[in-house]
From TrEMBL:
It is a multi-pass membrane protein. Residues 22-402 form the Amino acid transporter transmembrane domain. This is Amino acid transporter transmembrane domain-containing protein. It is found in: Membrane. Keywords: Amino-acid transport, Membrane, Transmembrane, Transmembrane helix, Transport. Pfam families: Aa_trans (PF01490). GO terms for cellular component: vacuolar membrane. GO terms for molecular function: L-amino acid transmembrane transporter activity.
Length: 413
């Protein structure tokens, strides 16, 4: 990554973002909500089934906590006008090691989330078309792999967009898709004979680490928040953007979780769309909508990685080289998606190990470092210590549980 001095020189050479150039409040809300209401909505019923009904209280706590740490990131950025990205915050707070540490976790999280998008597409398309196969030069490519490749080709042009204001139109489609998805799943329960007959468990200690990890994954948008903040016309409205995005995404997650758990209970899979009976139109709509979501979110999630690579190697000076670098990154995520055979366990690992670190621990640590008043004994310090203790507990137990499940899954029975 570039040093902060290089970032400073580059920022001075760029034109100042005017009100005409930045993204509006509404467009930023669409981008933010599109990030938060991501693929986690499909696994939220599964997360609820692992922890039981009372785990909803933990979910609400995680939502409030992540909203607060999002505000902490803004305060860190406001402490120095030259801060443009999340790694910049790490360097100002902890020097070059801070930048490297945060960059590693942040970009790995975003990269794996992008991979999860492709795996999701492959799973659901394969459910719709289970007999699809492709024969190339004597080699048989199975349906799921074919669909991952096809999805990568469809997503690729969206990654060439640089303007987040334009990308907001794509994000608006993603937000609408989430609402339609929830409505379609509820329709299956109400009108297509599935019903809401499962009582579920009140509390399950053994599944709590997994459910908490998945809850955290649902709010893993912090790596993109600095990008959204710097793209805004009116940056002072960013706290309102966070409140709107977290409130609406929590409403969507809660609705999907409650209805999904009542429909399938302990029989839920890692993606609720894989539970739906395929012979109903509403089920097909839900699956098709699920297929739309990653296409609308992929470019926004991977944009910090592409921007960092272009700044590092000056790829942004040539449009053709920029497109080539972004294409290469997409191809690499396709390759990883082809060799990873499972979805839910990887999501739990991302939530526990990466999302907790990027969305909970780092914002709090950087804020404590940059704000001297927050280190004095008082409410700010108590809140920060509580957040850090909670984050460490979730990261430790969740990472261990997810890795144990992955090992059990890949070991021959």
């Amino acid at each position: 990554m570039d040093s902060f001095n290089i970032d400073k020189t580059e920022s001075q050479n760029e034109p100042q973002q005017s009100l005409q150039q930045g993204a509006s409040f509404v467009r930023t809300c669409f981008n933010g909500l599109n990030i938060l209401a991501g693929v986690g909505i499909l696994s939220f019923p599964y997360a609820l089934s692992k922890g039981g009904w009372l785990s909803v209280s933990i979910f609400l706590f995680v939502a409030a906590l992540c909203c607060y740490t999002g505000l902490l990131l803004q305060r860190c950025m406001d402490s120095n006008q030259l801060i443009k990205t999340y790694p910049d915050i790490g360097e100002i707070a902890f020097g070059r090691n801070g930048r490297t540490f945060i960059s590693t976790f942040m970009y790995l999280e975003l990269y794996l989330v992008s991979v999860e998008f492709l795996i999701l597409e492959g799973d659901n398309l394969h459910k719709l078309f289970p007999n699809a196969n492709l024969h190339v030069y004597g080699h048989n490519i199975e349906g799921k792999q074919v669909f991952i490749l096809l999805t990568g080709l469809i997503i690729l042009p969206t990654t060439w967009l640089r303007n987040l204001g334009l990308l907001a139109y794509v994000s608006a489609g993603g937000v609408v898709a989430c609402v339609v998805l929830v409505c379609s799943v509820v329709w299956v329960g109400v009108f297509d004979g599935v019903g809401f007959h499962e009582k579920g468990e009140l509390w399950q200690w053994s599944g709590l680490p997994t459910s908490t990890s998945l809850f955290t994954f649902c709010y893993c948008g912090h790596a993109v928040f600095p990008t959204l903040y710097t793209s805004m016309k009116e940056k002072h409205k960013f706290p309102k953007v966070l409140l709107v995005c977290f409130f609406l995404s929590t409403l969507l997650y809660g609705s999907m979780g409650i209805f999904g758990y009542l429909m399938y209970g302990r029989h839920l899979t890692s993606q609720i769309t894989l539970n739906l009976p395929i012979n109903y139109l509403s089920s097909k709509i839900a699956i098709y909508i699920t297929l739309v979501n990653p296409i609308t979110k992929y470019a926004l999630v991977i944009s910090p990685i592409t921007n960092a690579l272009e700044d590092k190697f000056s790829f942004n000076k040539s449009r053709s080289i920029s497109i080539l670098s972004r294409t290469s990154l997409v191809v690499s995520t396709i390759f990883v998606a082809l060799v990873i055979p499972f979805f839910g366990y990887v999501m739990a690992f991302i939530g526990a190990f990466l999302s907790v670190t990027v969305s909970i621990l780092f914002p709090c640590l950087c804020y404590l470092k940059l704000n001297k008043s927050s280190r004095k004994l008082g409410t700010k310090l108590i809140i920060s210590v509580t957040i850090l203790v909670f984050g460490v507990c979730v990261a430790t137990t969740g990472t261990y549980t997810s890795m144990r499940d992955i090992i059990r899954h890949v070991q021959p029975s």
